Amino acid sequence: MEASASNPSLLGQHLYEAHFQYSDSINDQHIRLLDLEFGHDDETISLGIETYKVNDYPPYIALSYTWGDTNDTINLLCNGKTIAVTRNLHEALWQFRENRKRLARLEPYTRSHNQPLHFWIDAICINQGNNKEKSFQVGLMREIYEGADHVFVWLGPADKSSDVAIRCINTIGSKAEDCGFEDGAGLVTKIWHEIEFVSGGYQRVVSANPWYGKAMKSLFDSISGRSSQSNVLPITDLDNFFTRPWWTRIWVLQEVAVSRDTHFICGAQRLSKSRCNAFIHMYAALWKANAAAFRRERANFTKYRLDIMRHLVHQGPNLMLNIPNIYRRNAFQLVALLRATCIGSENLKWHGPHHLEAKRPEDKIFALLGLAADREELKSFGVVPNYDIPYEQTYTTTMVALLQQGHISLLSMCQASRSPNLPSWVPDWSRSVTDMLQTVRSDHMTLYPEFSSSGSHTNRNSIKVLKKDSKIGKQISVKAILFDEIFQVGRFPGRIDSKDVPLSEAYTWPSEWLVEILRLSYCTGKYYKRFHDRLSASARTATGDVAKNSAGESIRSGNTHFDNAVVLLRDGVRFIGNGRFRVETQCFLATQTINTKPKDRVTNELPLAFRIVGASLGRLPFVTKKGHIGLSSDDVRQGDAIAIIEGSQVPFVLRPLDKGRFSLVSEAYVDGIMDGEAAETSKFSYITLR
User: Predicted confidence band at 187 (pLDDT cuts at 50, 70, 90)?
Assistant: First the structure.
């Protein structure tokens, strides 16, 4: 039987009296390195540890991994004394020791395989009980991974599923490398214009690039999943592999971004970063081709092709594997990195970017500082790693710095699910944030078109941070227009949790949702006069006024969704009670002619239905006293104020407090005032948020 780190007979049962103690505290001028000793004792892992000056250390390997359960620990030896490490780290060290001959062949390690290898591993090389040292070392993390000769990514022990996935990635990924897919995500878009999924298989529809040639057509034909083929790609195994905990950890972004040479290790198997990258880009192109074909030939889709649609295997790894390109271009400020790593959904994950996690809330900031193009500027605002203060203070300091940079759009990240110790105007970045209606300035990752509810008004000098005893307090003063008040809040279909929409309901409830928004437009009898205008406004509101053009780019929807809304409304009539609403709906539908076949109508309504699903997660519709319908957080209440903050792209929902102060509830889509209509006729004045 193969040796295992979890086998008690192989771990050793020695009881050591002496526990390891750090002999000194280090700052940002020193690092510690470990020697993994390859002796003859097969029972106990033994490490040596030594302190080195920065820029004066031997070649070393930096480990990128997840700690795992901190309560599940195993003892090993460090300088001859016991130290407890998590089981996942112990498994990694065990595997490295068992494969020492292969590791020794890595340049510059030309030494005998019986000599130690130097490692940097955060759990041991940093005294985790010393917050001051930890703050220094975390600020040095980028340089540590940048200086490593290799970065080993430990994905965990192998199992049957991971073995299948890695074999597939190596086999198909090798062919993808031959086609140039390792070159980056940009190639996916290029290839998307080169191939088309048609009944005869994948075909090149543009012949301007013969470089792709037969190899590419052969690759896509081999994995197309036509009815005559078996399941070429093990979708479930791939999904399991790319959802292992490492892929969701925020620290790994920096660790991979600055690495000179990255190796993925799962059990005893290794996977090159370039091959993994090529496979992921190939899968992204495959998914896009299937998505386009789905609209035309949904009824003919096999289970395999549907599985490809359901499993966005490429989404998480895409961010991880392409972060080095982002870092080398010095492209993104902290505000954009926060957008890319904090927004997501627990359920319908294709509707948000990627939510990455950290065991400590403050690490959601600290882990991104090393990648941020504005790192030095943020340091001047006091945004530096500091584990001696509460994370709420770190978040508040960071938000103040970003607001002073002019990023008022970040107020859209403030949502109901937050720590009670945070001011309402400070996002809780430790939690998954529902995708924002408002784009983030300087965020090149966003695809959403901009609104301009402030009109021509900018946010210059519009925010004042109120301090208490020369320290940042919990209040800010902002210039705003109190435009309206929420009159009634709509209801999410009773059988569905707005934050956890089951996939089985994605095709069934959008018509009910559209009808509920349309109903709200009748509550005050103001603003909308014609049924056509009500339905157009309801379709815009249901989707946050976002649609896709023929090139797949996000645009303002306007009346783009109107025809599809008519189709959904026909299905939703059964949800309408008696009265004026029902009569007007039936009269309107009687005047609408349908020129498409039933099958085509189902296909045509899908873009609107899917867009409704994405826009509605965690949100509820409402109507204001002036008759405007809108969409906001599911925490909104009757009596909340609709405000336009100077310089913001979207309105906000504010809750009145005592002494004329307000708490920020959520951003909002409010039909009819998204392009500065209210801002041009009203005057901004200061209000206080706390």
Answer: low
SS3 string, 103-134, reads: HHCCCCCCCCCCCCEEEECHHHHCCCCCHHHH
Q: Are residues 301 and 175 in the same domain?
A: yes
What 8-state DSSP symbol labels residue 249? B
Checking if the pLDDT of 229 tops 70, the result is no
Residue corresponding to tokens 């970017």: 353
Residue with tokens 């599923």: 161
What is the spatial distance between Cα 186 and Cα 191, in angstroms, rounded to a whole number? 9
How is the chain split among helix, strand and coil, in percent rounded to 5?
40, 20, 40
Bond preceding residue 59 cis, omega within 30 of 0: no
Q: Sort 95 into a burial class: Cβ within 10 Å, 0-12 / 13-18 / 19+.
A: buried
> DSSP labels for 127-182?
-TT-HHHHHHHHHTHHHHHHH-SEEEEE-----HHHHHHHHHHHHHHHHHHHTTGG
Is residue 398's pLDDT more than 80? yes
Confidence of residue 117 (pLDDT cuts 50, 70, 90): confident
Whether 573 and 435 map to the same domain: the answer is no
Has residue 67 got a pLDDT over 90? Answer: yes
Angle between helices 562-572 and 598-616 (to 10 degrees): 90
| 127 vs 340: which has the higher pLDDT | 127
Q: How confident is the model at residue 114 (pLDDT cuts 50, 70, 90)?
A: low
Q: Which of 340, 278, 286, 293 is nearest to 311 (CA)?
A: 286
Q: Is the pTM of this model over 0.90?
A: no
Q: How confident is the model at residue 470 (pLDDT cuts 50, 70, 90)?
A: low
Give domain status of residue 688, yes or no.
no
Q: Do 173 and 309 belong to one domain? A: yes
Residues 6 or more apart from 215 whose CB is under 8 A from it? 175, 178, 179
More confident: 276 or 298 = 276
| Residues forming a β-bridge with 73 | 86
Question: Considering the domain boundaries, does residue 464 fall inside one?
Answer: no
Instruction: In whole angstroms, give the CA distance from residue 637 to residue 629.
Output: 14
Q: Are strands 641-645 and 629-633 parallel, antiparallel or unpaired?
A: unpaired
Is there a contact between 641 and 662 (Cβ–Cβ < 8 Å)?
Answer: yes
Whole-number Å distance between alpha carbons of 497 and 258: 41
Domain enclosing residue 417, as ranges? 334-446
**Contact of 656 with 665, CB cutoff 8 Å:** no
- Residues in CB range of 390: below 8 A, 6 or more apart: 421
Q: How far apart are CA 476 and CA 470, in angstroms?
A: 14
The pLDDT tens digits for 191-223 are 544 454 444 444 544 444 555 557 777 787 788
Question: With helix as H, strand as E and coil as C, how does 630-668 read?
Answer: EEEECCCCCCCEEEEECCCCCCEEEEECHHHEEEEEEEE
**200 shares its domain with 279:** yes
More confident residue, 506 or 55: 55
3 state SS of 265: strand
The percent of residues above 90 in pLDDT, for the chain, comes to 49
Rounded-to-10 torsion of CA 157, 159, 165, 166: 50
Residue 249 dihedral angles phi and psi, to the nearest 5°: -95, 130
Measured distance CA(336)–CA(373) in Å, rounded: 10
Tally of domains within the chain: 4
CA distance 344 to 532: 34
